[in-house]
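User: Round two. Same drill as before: sequence, then structure, for each protein.

Assistant: Same drill it is. First protein:
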Amino acid sequence: MPVSTARAVGGRVKTARQVRKMTQRDLSAVSGVSFSMVRAIERGGRMPSDAVVEALAAALGVDPMRLLQDPGRAAARIHESLGAVSDVIASFDCPDDGATRPLDQLHQDVDELANWRLGAQYLRIVRSAPQLLEELARALDCSTSEEKRAQAAALLASAYRSADAVAYKHGAKDLSARLVELMRWAAERADDDLQRAAAAYVRTETFFSAGAHRAGLRALERAIDASPAPDGNNATAARGALHMRAAVIAGRDGNAAAAGQHMAEATTLADRIPEGVYLGTAFGPSSVRVHAVSVAVSLGNEHLQDALDIGMTWKPPAKGRDALPAERRSGFYIELARAQLWSGRRDAAYESLKVARRIAPQATREHPWVREDIATLRRLRRADNEDLSAFAAWCGSIG
């Protein structure tokens, strides 16, 4: 590895540490990386391994990509680990023998995986998912009571969802579809209507991938009818999220009437509960506003102004009562960038894409719209623009 790359990584580690007012010994204590290693990395004398980068990033509260600035390396590691996920799920119903921790300990790891998903921390997910999925399958297989079996199944459904997020975002569509079906299988074994609703929400990815928007809308509307009455925050969020998703896929189908109807239902339900993460899905007033931009972009034409109006008067909050996860905030700016580009606001579109990158680098880099829109911007502006070309190379829009 070139010394200049090690120095660059070391400089980013040092900057992130200083921003958080940590000493090198603080960083060593929190990350578990030796003090001598931290010092050598910051001097540029050592290039950290993937595991060390992830430990430092976790201690600093940043995406590992912010420290590496090496998307090719991270993407290669993710695709390699997705193979391990595929191997594990091949034996989902007949797991290998091995140690199995108590469900409360497994619950903590599943929650951590879900938090990484919401924060678009895909490299962390894929490194942990194979072992956790195998252990959860054993927990389900050896459960001694209906109650424990249902708990293990619910945890497995959530873990499948987190693994699917990586597969879907990184273009492994067949693996993603398999994980979605396993999530649905686990939700049935949990015998929980809220888990079934969450699985129906995620299943929409398969319809997006296939371009089967009308069928996807039909499936979501059936799921809405089968979802629990919106009594309590979790049930309200479950039904509201399905309406929110239905509005987007109706927009992709060009069905403005259905999109408007589902968006209105989602808004009504969101106004009844605070913004939050319910059974793994962010829902509330802020989430609905983000999806209003998505619907407007999906419908296009005269609807684009609706997206632009939201972008001019509102920004997805990162802190406070209505704070949104990083993945959803980055998605807002990616969608807004498309509306801006289609409306001839090229500079604004590029700025929005850069904001999305700062918020969630891994999610932004793997989004197909980002690559398409950067390629379009390079055609419309001077292709030799150094900053724009560097962004295009970073996201894979050019070789």
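Second protein:
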Amino acid sequence: MSRLIVISNRVQAPSADSNGAQGGLAVALTAALREADGIWFGWSGETGETGDLAFTTYDGVTSATIDLPEQDVDEYYNGYANRTLWPLFHYRLGLTEFERDFQGGYERVNRTFGEKIGPHLRPDDLIWVHDYHLIPLGWVLRQQGLKNRLGFFLHIPWPPTPLLTALPEHRRLVEALFAYDVVGFQTREWLETFHDYVRNQMGGSVGEDDTVTVGGRTITAIACPIGIDAEAFIASANSLNAAATHARMMTSSIGRSMIVGVDRLDYSKGLEERFNGYQRYLETRPDAHTNVYLLQIAPPSRAAVQSYRDIRATLDALSGRINGAFADIDWVPLRYVNQGFPREILAGIYRAARVGLVTPLRDGMNLVAKEYVAAQDPDDPGVLILSRFAGAAEQMEQALLVNPYSADDLADAIEQALVMSREERIARWRPMFGNVRREDVIWWRKRFTAMLAQP
């Protein structure tokens, strides 16, 4: 049996310090690694001289990490990954920074990964590389003479051709994908934008059997939407901790309907636009003021990047302005919390919320939408309001799909959700719940690795 080798920017393998608290992606990949006696390679998250790989085995899963010098972290991670590729791939050209040093650091770290990992690979290993941080890694490994089956999965959107061509050396980046045998995207939309680039910028062709050909190289490119660890999340929603959190939220709400948003503090999540839409709802429905409130959970991220510091300052000011304008002596319309919570606590919050507000400006998938659906009471589910620009919208068309840029559209959807009958809520929830369970993270992993294993 071939080993599965997973390579990502960071390693999420279990450890004695994790106390079993892993995300769905880590759960799916560690299960596969355990079955296949595999290894998960990546950056340790620490700065220091790049030495030998540090191997650790815990609960049957082996991980191998390296430290990166501070310059590499600044240019590769904070720079090219998060100040160039991330905003560009999320359609934010105005926030994209084009610095030659960033690109140099990105390529240098990918070469380092290849040099450190290559000697530990066996001829029959299946190798699965993850996300925009490591697009060139397959090419680096091929240059070293690697003949193995290589797969790549992009967890974020693929941008339209006119945006991607703004990137210096854009063709070089896309050509690197043709070092892989299987390339996966979250949705048909992102796959089709990739096809468009290949046809119009590279003179390539797209076959009916998921093949894409440029010159003499043919790869398989598929849409393979990632899911959550559905059964584990449903169990969390029915746990004692979730029940206690649900009771706490219901007591705190004092009969008011709660709207919940849970997002990493990132400009792609549409939080400023969401606050503006909620403000429009409050402005145009004064009779509903004391009957509803919004709980927005937004843990900070990437504080070393200026644009992330800017969005936090903007939201701090906007939340204060909304509460200052609309709050009463016994009611605050917006509870804004800058910290994360464990899965069971979140599940209890989701179940207590009459409305789940998931309105990114652009998202590869958005698993919060699926978590919200999974956590609901089947006899009295809440309503999911979902941005039509989230990848999850392709699978969850029964949600109230909105344009997150339109304050009026958001305000109207909030009103529709809050007055929706129980019968309609159940009718919308059931097919979404079925999809969340059927196309979960295990389904995603097995589908991709089955394609990768094909000769």
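The first strand starts at residue 4 and ends at 10.

User: Perfect.
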